[in-house]
Amino acid sequence: MALLEIRNVTRRFGPLTAVDDVSLAVEAGEFFTLLGPSGCGKTTLLRMIAGFDLPDAGEILLEGADMADTPPEKRPIHTVFQSYALFPHMTVAQNIAFPLRMAGNAPEQISAKVRDALALVHLEAKGQQYPHELSGGQKQRVALARSLVSRPRVLLLDEPLGALDAKLREEMQIELIDMQREVGITFVFVTHSQNEALALSSRIAVMNAGRVEQLDEPSRLYGFPRNRFVADFIGKINLFNGEIVAVDGERVRLRVAGLGEIEARGAAGLRPGTPATLALRPEQVRLAAIGAALDLPNRHPGKVRDFLYIGDVTTYVIDLQNGQRMQALLPNSSPGRAKFFEVGDAVTAAWPAEAGVVLTE
Amino acid sequence: MNYNWHWKVLLEMEPGGTGTYLHYLLVGLLWTLATALAAWVIALAIGAAVGTLRTTPLKWAVRLGNLYVEIFRNIPLIVQMFLWFFVMPELVPQGLGDWIKQMPPPWGSYVPAVLCLGIFTSVRVAEQVRAGIQSLPRGQRLAGIAMGLTEAQTYNYVILPQSFRIILPPLTSEFMNIIKNSSVALTIGLLELTGRARAMQEFSFRVFEAFTAATVIYLLTNLAVVLLMRAVEKKVRVPGLIAAAATPQAGH
């Protein structure tokens, strides 16, 4: 039995359906992420799990029990807010001790647990300070410690790293994973950042317009997006719209206007004559000077329009003959080498038949 | 101004024979303070309760609170004083009404004056409390609920301790107002400081001395209140709380 189960949950605000018939299950110990653009319904869903809002239809079950009649304070579910929501009139230690004190724990038990919680978030020395004396990252850690100290069954995190700068964000991501592993509490994490979601999660539900578009492990989401929305939302991607002209077992052939035919990996349900899109990751594309021998079935001439040097990799923007623009990502393995091609160079973009995914949705 | 000041009048015996006029005025100050302090207890208790209720999700409580505030905010203090003194004893059951009317002086004026001032000020306190609570970031309440506190615990330990710190300065003004407003009680016969200054003027015909003395006593009293409250504010201050309420996400 799943720890947390969402069954056909719908929530409407006037004419807007914020969450539209969503069903999913979160297993115990998972780092589960709700990912989607602003307004996709992920925060509304989180608020309903916490109990701050109720579904118009459907059920939310925790360990098999319907939560509809359980008010938020009775649910063994805690929330970490983006704004930290630390209590400014209490010290760090008092903040962390607070939920334990309210639950009527013995003082010596409380101080032991607070010590452990401070150690967990590496703030042993900050117990006697007030929240306003802490940096943003430290405040976020205190908020985490305060939510974890009374061992909830599920911890909800609402864009908890949103207010941190990029470097701190990355550090906190690593800490979050460690922390979650250490305490073994199920995390349900909400973010609009696909990088964050891919880095942290054991599974991700990609949401759009109130619905779950795809629920999968990060690598499957990235490698096998189910539709154009997911392909486009997760990572960078090149989309070639065309029509299926031939299906031959493991291979399909796709005709793209101005480029000719593309050979790609087949999938169930693909039929000749139907429109389809090839979704191809930039790192699956190889570039070579015109005329160089390339033993790949898909070869298309183009011109380097631009490149972005990122350090470890360089992204090339290629104008193909049909006017379509595509991206190719090449690793810079030798130091000091920023590029293989110059702007304006004629190149061949090529990729194997098994690269990319053919999408019909 | 051509006036022959005669400050020694303060050291002359007042006609009642209880002591000098200065002593007579200082006893008036004690009545002023006794009225103000008792009324302040009522104002704080009712004000905190009504102000808090008006921020809860309970619709009936919010409406009731609004009604209470609008009634006592929109009637002049002196009219309320008369209502408490003349009308209230007629509205309550007859036995109680008779008992109130037969209370010996000064209690017959003191009790209605305290009730009147207390309730008049409670609506102002209620407004301050409501504003203080609403100035806190919404996440504070949600955080309390999310970690398993009941609504009442959240108010007790999270919301109210912060709001009261924020509204301490306006509350100080309200307390000083109550000291000044207690002078209206002279209209129902309470011999507090202003009432006694007026009596002194009638007995001694020294209007300037009487009211100058009363003015100085009021000034010194309120100055003492300001200094005291400033010390209290300093003691309970949480650095960054008022700024934090305005900008919930401070920098790193």
Explain this structure:
The complex is a heterodimer of chains A (361) and B (252). Chain A has helices at 42-50, 92-102, 107-120, 136-148, 166-183, 194-200, 218-223, 228-233; strands at residues 4-13, 16-26, 31-35, 57-62, 65-66, 77-80, 154-158, 186-191, 203-208, 211-216, 238-248, 251-256, 260-265, 275-280, 286-289, 298-309, 313-320, 325-331, 346-351, 357-359. Chain A is 23% helix and 36% strand. Chain A folds into two domains: 4-231, P-loop containing nucleotide triphosphate hydrolases (Rossmann fold); 236-359, RNA polymerase II/Efflux pump adaptor protein, barrel-sandwich hybrid domain (OB fold (Dihydrolipoamide Acetyltransferase, E2P), Beta Barrel). In chain A, the strands form four sheets. Chain A has a six-stranded mixed sheet, sandwiched between helices. Chain A is an alpha+beta fold. Chain A is globular, with a radius of gyration of 25 Å. Chain B has one domain: MetI-like fold, CATH 1.10.3720.10. Chain B is built from eleven helices and no strands. Chain B has helices spanning 21-53, 59-73, 77-91, 94-101, 107-134, 138-146, 151-166, 168-181, 193-204, 207-236, 241-246. The longest helix of chain B has 33 residues, at 21-53. The model of chain B is unreliable at 243-252 (pLDDT under 50). The chains are: A alpha+beta (361), B mainly alpha (252). The interface between A and B is medium-sized, with 35 and 28 residues.
The amount of beta strand of chain B, in percent, is under 5%
The residue ranges of chain A in which pLDDT falls below 50 over 5 or more consecutive positions are none
**CATH topology call of chain B:** MetI-like fold
Give the CA-based shape of chain B.
Answer: globular
Structure, briefly:
The complex is a heterodimer of chains A (361) and B (252). Chain A has helices spanning 42-50, 92-102, 107-120, 136-148, 166-183, 194-200, 218-223, 228-233, and strands at 4-13, 16-26, 31-35, 57-62, 65-66, 77-80, 154-158, 186-191, 203-208, 211-216, 238-248, 251-256, 260-265, 275-280, 286-289, 298-309, 313-320, 325-331, 346-351, 357-359.
